[in-house]
Amino acid sequence: MTEKSLYTYPVLCFAAFVFWLVSVPMDGPLAGAAGVANASAAFLPIHVAALLLLGLFCPRQAFFRLVPAGCLATAVLTLLLFFKPSAGSWILACMGASGAVVAIAACVTLCQSPVPLLCAAAGLVMGNLLVLPVLLRPLDSFWIFAAVAVFLLAIPVLAAHLPDPEPMEMPDETGPWHYLPFILLFKVICGLMYVIVMPAYHQEAAFPGFEMLFYVAAVFGAYRLTRINRDLALIGGVVLGMAAFTIMQTAPGLFSANAGMFALQAATGMVDLVLIAVLLDLADPVRAFGIGLAIVCTGIAAGELMGRYFAGMTGAIAMTGHFVLNLSVLVLYFLGRYGYISSAGSAQTPGLAETKPGPAAVAEAGPAAPVPDPGRDRPGSAAGEDEVEKKMPRYLRMLLSEREYLVLKKVLAGKTYRQTALELALSESTVKTYMHRVYEKMGVSGKKKLFEKLSNL
Q: Are residues 75 and 190 in the same domain?
């Protein structure tokens, strides 16, 4: 396969999944055209259960064998929704099970790209923009449902041409799992959006479909911020969410419905991309995306339940939104702080495994000594690697995954890609892929620029 395919195929697979998700089960326009009210309520419970089962108990190779069948079943159920709208709730419940395979498969393809986060951003943008022409055509057309189904069928075909993602040897406990409780709480806001804000917006929308452009713009902004510090993107999402609920509470009417939806879509776009960045850093992609997406869907389902309880109570909804957003920030801070303290204690206590610092580590780590030029301190030796690690900026332990960090450490110590591949039991092309990811996260274009940036810190 060509190198170009490593960039385009993951984008297309992920965009196909996003297009289907937004168009059908998450109260999308096609579910509405089929006459299914509260489509997500029928879809989410089974979807959460299926995601957890796959993430916790399905072996990697067994999962990859399920992908063609899962995509085919989801495509058939999408078409069946057009022909049998009277059974829409049951169809969406079955879609929750098969769609779990589609969701994880599409996300795992991102791990097979040299620039996974860029592919994720492009896929989110493309998938949401594909919904715009759907909204401009008669939704009772069979060909609209068929187009969504065909996109789903493309996922196993394209994924089959990508190399299998290699699991990291490090345990998942070293990854940034502490972000997931924040994501869970934030997604409660998304559930409120689906149940309360979106119906009000559809009645008052000045430019139907225009809200997706705010989501797209926020994804681009989050990509830029995440390359600097992913916590900045999270804070941006929280601020936009608070702005949305403030607008709803203080400026009711046409302006409130439109501006509130625009702000919430932008907040969702920022947090969605950070979520993917977090899950990409975890060890086993199938396990990471199975558990991570289940947490997301649980938060949305909880928000929808709260929204139905507070239906018609604008003040209570706004207060709930503010409370949840503030709580999510506190959870992120304290869990991140705990992760950093635990990491510091482990580093000073013999016999304890070293763990990654939490997000507070960047602010508290303080200045670090410059990274040595590659080749110094007996390049290629264990002593050389130890010297490199002492002088590497501490924030890299948070920014990079364990495998990316190990590869970078060996390269900085003067080892070639071939030597690094042999020592880590990887292929040489996989080592290059990890280095591409390091370049992407560090915002540089190659090895020379990376060395210059690290030497200047």
A: no
362 falls within a domain = no
- Secondary structure of residue 425 in the 3-state scheme: coil
Measured distance CA(277)–CA(59) in Å, rounded: 23
C-beta of residue 438 within 8 angstroms of C-beta of residue 393: no
pTM equals 0.81
> Considering the domain boundaries, does residue 169 fall inside one?
no
pLDDT tens-place string over residues 215-261? 999 999 999 888 777 888 888 999 898 888 888 777 667 777 788 88
Helix boundaries (H) for 310-401? 314-348, 360-364, 382-391, 396-399
Q: Across residues 316-335, what is the average pLDDT? A: 76
Closest C-alpha to 163, from 426, 440, 374? 426
Q: Cite the DSSP H helix spans in 24-167.
A: 29-33, 39-57, 60-83, 88-111, 116-129, 131-135, 142-159
Does residue 359 belong to any structural domain of this protein?
A: no
Same domain flag for 8 and 69? yes
Based on the fold, state whether residues 372 and 343 are members of the same structural domain.
no
- Cα 266-270-275 angle, rounded to 5 deg: 140
Instruction: Give the single-character DSSP code of 251.
Output: S
Task: Report the candidate in 315, 316, 276 with the shortest Cα–Cα distance to residue 296.
Answer: 276
Could you tell me if 242 and 350 lie in one domain? Answer: yes
| Dihedral sign of CA atoms 3, 16, 118, 109 in order | negative
For residue 442, what pLDDT band results from cuts at 50, 70 and 90? confident
Same domain, 346 and 378: no
Same-domain pairing of 272 and 294: yes
Handedness of CA 345, 346, 350, 352 (dihedral sign): positive
Report yes or no on 326 lying in a domain. Answer: yes
C-alpha to C-alpha distance for 51 and 290, rounded to whole angstroms = 5
Domain range enclosing 343: 175-354
Q: 216 and 119 in one domain?
A: no
Instruction: State the Cα–Cα distance between residues 156 and 139, nearest whole angstrom.
Output: 27
Q: Which residue has the higher pLDDT, 371 or 361?
A: 371
Query: Which tops the pLDDT comparison, 130 or 356?
Result: 130
Give the alpha-carbon dihedral of 77, 81, 87, 88, to 10 degrees.
Answer: 100
The C-alpha atoms of residue 271 and residue 236 are separated, in whole angstroms, by 9
Closest residue by Cα to residue 51 from 386, 299, 399, 357: 299
Q: What's the token pair of residue 94?
A: 């079955």
